[in-house]
Amino acid sequence: MKIEILFPEFCNLYGDMYNMKYLKMCMPEAEFIETALDDVPAFTKEDVNMIYLGPMTEKTQEKVIARLKPYKNKIEELINKNVVFLFTGNALEVLGKYIENEDGSKIDAVGIFDVYSKRDMMHRHNSFLIGKYEDIEMIGFKSQFTMMYGDNKDSYFVEVEKGIGINKESKLEGIKKNNFIGTYIIGPILIQNPLFTKKLIKAMGAKEDTLVFEQDLMAAYEERLKELKKL
Amino acid sequence: MKKGFRFYIALWGAKAGTIILKLFRRNATFFPGKFALKICPDFIGKIGKPKTIVAVTGTNGKTTVCNMTEDILRDNGYQFIDNKYGSNIDAGVATTLIGGASITGKAKKDLAVLEVDERSAPKIYPYLTPTYLVCTNLFRDSLMRNAHTEFISSLLTKYIPKETTLILNGDDLITSNIAPENKRIYFGIDRLKTDGDKCINIARDIIVCPKCNTKLVYDYVRYNHIGRAHCPKCDFKSPDIDYLATSLDLENMKMALKHGDTEEIYDLISDNIINIYNIVTVITILKTLGLTCTQINESLKKQKIVDTRYSEEMVDGIKVITHLAKGMNPIACSRVFDYTRKYKGNKAVIVILDDLHEAANGSENTAWQYDTDYEFLNDESIKQIIIAGARYLDGLVRLEIAGIPKDKIVYQRDELSAVDKLKLDGIETVFVLHDLYSIELKNAIKHKVEIMIKNSEREKEEKGE
After folding, report:
1. Which of B140, B144, B390 sits opposite A124 (nearest CB)?
2. What is the pLDDT of residues A179-218, one digit of tens each?
3. How far away is chain A from the Cα of B261, in angstroms, using its nearest Cα?
4. Which of A13, A57, A220 sits opposite B393 (nearest CB)?
5. Which CATH class is domain A2-230?
6. Which fold has domain B310-457?
7. Superfamily of domain B4-300
8. Test mutation, B159, B225, B401, B404, chain A, max A CBs within 10 A
9. Burial of A226 (0-12, 13-18, 19+ CB in 10 A)
């Protein structure tokens, strides 16, 4: 099993890197490849089971877009081949059509998904989320300068019960296509959602999906879910 | 700037409001300024300001730096205005200026020391030009408000007036590069025995050269991105330090400060590196304002870190230390965890970090806990960790992921009941690590711990141990 973490020296905000550290604890036999921004991504040279990209600063988004653009076709091919992807926070935006600044200027993105995002740097959005992903309930937190626009009704990740989707008018969060999952949820999403983590591990083809500290993770998840439902 | 009718309505209304609030014994540290800004949005620009303004900003240490600077100035007979008891955003600054102005809006004093929230730069600096702007450091802070250091440093660079002289932490590569066109003075601390070759912290926000994207070479790392580094490809490097603390002698609590060809000896009032940085910052400000070494040091010796931030007390042979660890601020918490593990002897640690302020608005986003070095609490000398509060189950999971054996951890929702499980056998120090918004709870826990220590000593005596 091979898991590639893209650009961890840059894309590591909001504690998201612990998603990978935790996965490493759950999958000690897996090989984790950390690809620096200057390196050629491993997914272009060999088979990988999962590709992870975490949240980043706005300047870094431009660097990452430039780095991934030449591999647009390869990324599409891997999505079609059911390789697992997890893009968290504003990482999803780099695969959209463009990112628009407050002054109307646009940064062309990789262009895999038919969505775009708009920045509003002086108004940060913070919220929590509860919603359905397949047969499980997801919880999460959002903290972002951007909102995403475009049609994701056939390709959303979570149907939101409380909170917002890709923008304030939407109840459909993120993008899911085959095993590609992109979400604005930030932080330790795999630690806070043990049922989702099990699904992710299974999607990679692992036979065993037992999690480290599973009982304690489940207790924290159930407590949080109960608390958020009351709000 | 021409004053006009709106300005006077705002000024007189705010001054009248201040009197009324004081009559009702309410804090007049925010609302007068808020009122004035509502009536006259450019009020800060129009009101008379002291000739010399020292503004202090940065992620960590700004309150301590302001408090110490003000106490030493006061001790030396200086007259000035400050926002010590007020807020550090635009309304708090406006309130301070209103208090320091005459009925016609003229400044009554020549000096101001203002703590300024870094996120408030766009609302303050277009209207107020600090003579000196001090930046203590820039780290990851509340992600919900401050996002990341690139956002905050670019705000500062955009809004700091060109005429302002900067006083910057030269050991912080992010801080030292804000507003590059401005005149600047750097302070720093020379290499320490405890500095390492690589970063052991989770958060490190400057890894590559901001000029050419090449991976930086660190000459040494103190913590997170604090240290000295250079780019192997271009001329980017840590700046030369103007006020450099050398020869830190923690046994005798002294340090030397080099400036040009002179070297002066100062007393240290804390052995904690974050407070040593605060002391060096304060000395640099005061030297820049023209105070002498004797003036500064005689007053510095009388200083104490305020009880709400740090306190220690010996109770029947066991030390009880309370230490502020600002929740949602990963670097502040990591520094406190590091201090705790390095503190001599066996310890029990009570961790109360839930942000009650956030909890009141819903549920706390605990993502920050995964930018925080909880791994530092995984230390042989820490015999027990008690984690309590609404997020106790999240805390338990975080501690387990940090590698701490579950049998060392007590986890419980109710904070005071959790303290009942404190084991004092073989413990030399009990640390109570608490958030800014839990001061009353911290006091209650401290009181309970002290009673438990006394009871345990009494029981031992009764048993003849």
Report:
1. B144
2. 999 999 999 999 999 999 999 999 999 988 899 999 999 9
3. 40
4. A220
5. alpha beta
6. Protein-Tyrosine Phosphatase; Chain A (3.90.190)
7. Mur-like, catalytic domain (3.40.1190.10)
8. B401
9. exposed
